[in-house]
Amino acid sequence: MPNIVKGSNMGGLLRYLAGPGRANEHTDPRVVAGDLVTMAVYAGSIDVARAGELAKLLDSPRQTVLRGEPVLVTNYREARARIAEGVPRKEAFDAATKDQNVWHCSLSLDPKEGQLDTAKWGEIARRFMEEMEFVDRADGAPDVRWTAIHHGLTKNGGDHIHIAMAVVRPDGSLADVRRDHPRSQAVAATIEREFGLKVLASREDRATEQATRPDERGRAERVGAPETDREALRRRVRAVATSTESEAEFVRELRADGMVLRPRFAKGGTDEVVGYAIRMPAQKNLQTGAWEKAVWYGGGQLSKDLTLSSLRGWTGWDASEDARTAAVAEWLRPATTRSGRAIGPSPMSEQDAIRQLGRWSQYMSTIPVSDRDAWAKAASQTAGLFAAASVRTETKPGPLDSVSRQLARAGQLPAHRRRPQQVHGQGMRAVARMLWSMQSEATSKVALAVALTECLLAIMDMLAERDRAQAAKMLASHAHRSLTQVHMRAAGIDPTRRTVPVTEVGSPPWAAARRSLAVINREDQEVVEDEVTTTVSAWQAKRTAFAGRPGTLNVDEFGHVLGEVRRPPTSADRAAGPLTPQSGAQPGKPTRPQSTGQTQFPGYNPYGRDRDRGQGHGR
């Protein structure tokens, strides 16, 4: 997973990579790859002092050939945004022009893939630089000065390296870093296959979204926000797009919710809107009290299906001439205008919503697998339902948001490939409006959550039939996790507290996971409920019998861990084993749910890893 950042301080970057890190997370920093001179002098272990010397070596072409001149790059999007805010043109372009003589890219593995040795990382780094055409170019241009540093695992446990490169070549020419983000994704796909690494599902399916940058996460921490601006905006824009009947209503509702929007007009006038930018309201730094600078995002920076042209393709907004005129008028209002909520309280009942969701599921089952446009619209609309539920019930991106994002990836289709026809399923807008306007956690009700889950099962089937099995399994995993939390809350379990693991057969968390798995695998609900009831009763009986036994966890009837009896266990205690009442289960090992004769979703196994490195439950 490549992540690229550009800057101007090579010394600061390398000293940070060779240092202890922000939280002493860096361990044994080592130079594992680089240009010929770098490897001849600095290969192997490196400390902060040697990192400073290496930085001077990498930056030497700029210092000697260009006499220290900066490599100025102008961000035209930022400049236009500043001009739109009233900043004088020259001042706007000066502020949007920065020195970018340093190119920095981190390459990370999924934590589940374990660790690679430094020699393997060195090979990967060299192949990456070759494929990016920074070294060994066919046109004979000299290689850039660069290094790759390995310093342990990320906070999430992923093995990774950092590549630092000087943009100025030894002859004074500049390395080509145009379109480096899409180029790096293509190169990463090549390297994944070449070195037998896990192929990122979203890249394999060409359905991606921009990753959260460290500066975005840092800003969220400074203002005390539970999510980054990009995450917050993505959830809200998708939810409101699904809930509104027209583009004008879309703009009014987002502004009423506190968002700040500005339009991008077609050249030559203000009578046609072709795009938009959006940001969160201003927030204060918790430590300094100063206002943090808000970040503007275009729709495409949130998600590929949230550009204005894509929204017009899948939302089913009113496309009449009067609606277009009203939309332009709404866009022309000042960016911070609030004219009251466009969406009021919904009169729809839970039962009406469940019936409407059932009709939607039936409709999707009739869409031909080959009709990519219809499936893209259906996936985007269903993603909007989960986004609306997420905004109203999750204080930060959680399982519902994960499902929404996976569905949105399934719905990614270029706007020019969408048919300009009326979108089916107008009744879904009423459900979305109910979810968006609700004041209580309606999606914590099991019946409504199950109806939502059944909608995405049709999309999972479509993905599997289109040979996108990995994407289908990812969607199944997120759906299982989301529905499991709903079942846990319905049973009185707090998912934010420590509980016994879901693999503890018979425990309440296991029961919640088992019930959600039955929905995803379309099992007989009555049979599964009988199994769960019997198994949970046995577990509760054994929990009571084992209460207070030395060396065991003290848990309540919901499976919450209350503490641990710390006295040394006796030989009899050790022989008793964990609370696993089901016969035939081996102590300490998860037991798979009993088969009910129904076909499980192909390849989906939430209780362990399969040969394709499938995700374990709750991961």
Q: In words, what does this structure look like?
A:
By secondary structure, the protein is of the alpha+beta class. Helix content is 46%, strand content 10%. The chain has helices at 10-18, 36-42, 48-64, 76-84, 89-95, 118-131, 180-194, 201-204, 214-223, 229-243, 247-256, 299-302, 308-314, 321-331, 350-364, 372-393, 399-410, 427-437, 446-465, 469-490, 508-520, 525-546, 571-576, and strands at residues 2-7, 30-34, 44-45, 72-74, 97-99, 102-108, 146-150, 160-166, 260-265, 273-279, 283-284, 291-292, 297-298, 553-555, 561-564. It has a 6-stranded antiparallel β-sheet with strand order 1-6-8-7-2-3, with helices on both faces. A hairpin with a 5-residue loop joins strand 14 (553-555) and strand 15. Helix 10 crosses helix 16 (372-393) and helix 21 (508-520) packs antiparallel against helix 22. The radius of gyration is 27 Å and the shape is globular. The model is unreliable at 578-605 and 607-619 (pLDDT under 50).
